[in-house]
Please model this.
Amino acid sequence: MTPLGEIVAIPLRGAWTGNRGILHSGHEIVRTHASDLWITCRLKFRGRWREQWLPHRYTHLYFHDEAVSFAAGHRPCGECRRADYVRYRDGWAEALGVAPPSARTMNRQLHAERLTGRRRRLHELPWTELPDGVFVLREGVPTLVVAGGLTGWTTSGYGPRRTLPRSGTAEVITPPATVAVLRGGYPVEIAATAR
Model:
């Protein structure tokens, strides 16, 4: 998966898996999502293993790191990542000033924030309000905010670091609710090569 939520076949190793439902027919991807449930899962959980491309079973997706999965519009799984899910949910409640939301409520809001019809939705936010782990679109390239700087994402990993602008607005890829959760201190996993 790319930070823009595009499903691509690349050699970059994924640190996380996830799903959006049944997206394939045979060995071909035929849709981008099957519902508003987009989750990020552990690669290993209780010894479970399942072959990819099984008929009538969800399509495995892979993310370079958790920051990529969040930018793509996913949230932590409530089963295999229970502690992360609870931290994310409680961070959502605190950041947005609401009662702890249900998974369904978060799914619906994230879905509205990540897509406009079938197109990727971007959001404008001031550069000074972007916490580590947020992806922006910079000169057409998905770019990660990390450690006071920026690093572009490529199909082979993260690229060189650049300076973070100190004024103006950014075209933000990561959905606003997740940006708020990250701003509140959720400990997002970012590949070491981004630093």
Summary: The helical segments are 66-72, 82-96, 103-114, 176-183.
